[in-house]
């Protein structure tokens, strides 16, 4: 198949061998030599290209990291592209987790299984050239950017992962099948990349919980690491969907983080007050249509009772204009005093 090249010098197509290699890519972990411009990561479009990149590192990886902190590891960050600072923080953390001689793989794949009817699959922002520029600056070694028929060579999979009850509440209630689609692609990418550690953002708290439970229940030999949410200075959690917000809509969207902060501040007054305080902030906000506001157990996603004492997770999903946003905040709840 003939390749075409975009402005970033990315070889496109399913050519065999290292057809996906970006011009200037370096074999050295974490990018270019000291003092030179960051090397762009190697780009793999096919399973064969990915396998070659993984085997090449496996054959040359040091038994112990340069810093003497143990074996070098392979770390993966799974994304749908349109990368922002939150994604880049995941990759920076992956670089640390992998070790000085480790390998960092970033997957970029807009997974059709996690989009429901009427959702924005076709409109989801895509900018591979821009993503590669950003990833070069944070030490990504390999980018796996497959087409849908590479991930799903037989079409829509007949056998899928079920998230069980975790996938039926909160996000699952508003987006039926979404969490099953997430877990199915996470499992497939885990098998393809074979990482030692996989990193996920804590902003998608329910997703992180589901991935952790899948790894435990299905005995996946991978460490799951959560990375704290990255926010803009005004408090808005970074999201690829923030690009859809107009200026006035962005101002209205700040009600989500304000509500979470207010709820967390109410923690010493008990669970009922946490819910009430956060709800009052959202109800007072114009142009914010709330899908749910929930205070849940951070392990089971069950609603906590009013007499709950200890850690909890306050989650919110809301629409601002046509954009659906999610956010969450850890809360330490004290028992309600009567």
From TrEMBL:
Enumerate the SUPFAM superfamilies for this protein. Nucleotidylyl transferase (SSF52374)
Residues reported in the UniProt entry to bind beta-alanine:
114
In which residue ranges is the amino acid composition biased (Low complexity)? 1-39
- At the top level, the lineage of the source is Bacteria
Give one Pfam hit by family name.
Pantoate_ligase
Active site feature: 87 (proton donor)
UniProt keyword ATP-binding, yes or no: yes
Q: Which EC number applies? A: 6.3.2.1
Q: Enumerate the residues binding ATP.
A: 80-87, 201-204, 230, 238-241
User: Region (Disordered) spans which residues?
Assistant: 1-43
Reactions that this protein is recorded to catalyse: (R)-pantoate + beta-alanine + ATP = (R)-pantothenate + AMP + diphosphate + H(+)
Q: Name one GO molecular function term.
A: pantoate-beta-alanine ligase activity
Q: Which residues bind (R)-pantoate?
A: 114, 207
Q: What class of enzyme is it?
A: ligase
Q: Which UniProt keywords apply?
A: ATP-binding, Cytoplasm, Ligase, Nucleotide-binding, Pantothenate biosynthesis
Q: In which pathway does it act?
A: Cofactor biosynthesis; (R)-pantothenate biosynthesis; (R)-pantothenate from (R)-pantoate and beta-alanine: step 1/1
- Subcellular location as annotated: Cytoplasm
Q: Which residues form the signal peptide?
A: none
Q: Which family is this protein grouped under? A: Belongs to the pantothenate synthetase family.
* Role according to the record: Catalyzes the condensation of pantoate with beta-alanine in an ATP-dependent reaction via a pantoyl-adenylate intermediate.
The entry describes its oligomerization and partners as: Homodimer.
Question: Anything further noted?
Answer: The reaction proceeds by a bi uni uni bi ping pong mechanism.
What name has this protein been given in UniProt? Pantothenate synthetase
Q: What taxonomic lineage is listed for the species of origin?
A: Bacteria, Bacillati, Actinomycetota, Actinomycetes, Micrococcales
């Amino acid at each position: 198949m003939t390749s075409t090249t975009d402005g970033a010098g990315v070889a496109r197509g399913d050519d065999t061998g290292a057809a996906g290699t970006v011009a200037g890519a370096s074999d050295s972990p974490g990018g270019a030599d000291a003092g030179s411009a960051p090397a762009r990561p190697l780009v793999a479009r096919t399973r064969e290209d990915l396998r070659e990149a993984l085997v090449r590192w496996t054959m040359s990886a040091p038994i112990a990291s340069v810093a003497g902190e143990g074996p070098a590891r392979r770390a993966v960050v799974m994304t749908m592209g349109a990368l922002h600072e939150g994604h880049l923080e995941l990759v920076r953390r992956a670089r640390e987790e992998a070790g000085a001689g480790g390998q960092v793989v970033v997957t970029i794949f807009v997974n059709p299984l996690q989009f429901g009817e009427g959702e924005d699959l076709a409109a989801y922002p895509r900018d591979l050239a821009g993503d590669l520029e950003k990833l070069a600056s944070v030490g990504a070694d390999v980018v796996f950017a497959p087409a849908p028929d590479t991930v799903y060579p037989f079409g829509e999979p007949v056998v899928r992962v079920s998230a069980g009850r975790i996938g039926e509440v909160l996000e699952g209630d508003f987006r039926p099948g979404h969490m099953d689609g997430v877990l199915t692609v996470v499992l497939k990418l885990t098998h393809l990349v074979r990482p030692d550690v996989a990193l996920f953002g804590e902003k998608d708290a329910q997703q992180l919980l589901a991935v952790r439970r899948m790894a435990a229940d299905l005995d996946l030999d991978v460490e799951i690491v959560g990375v704290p949410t990255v926010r803009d200075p005004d408090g808005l959690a970074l999201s690829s969907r923030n690009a859809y917000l107009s200026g006035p809509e962005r101002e209205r969207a700040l009600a989500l983080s304000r509500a979470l902060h207010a709820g967390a501040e109410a923690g010493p007054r008990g669970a009922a007050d946490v819910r009430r305080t956060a709800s009052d902030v959202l109800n007072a906000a114009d142009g914010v249509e709330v899908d749910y506001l929930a205070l849940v157990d951070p392990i089971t996603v069950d609603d906590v009772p009013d007499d709950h004492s200890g850690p909890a997770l306050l989650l919110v999903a809301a629409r601002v204009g046509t954009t659906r946003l999610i956010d969450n905040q850890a809360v330490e709840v004290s028992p309600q005093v009567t």
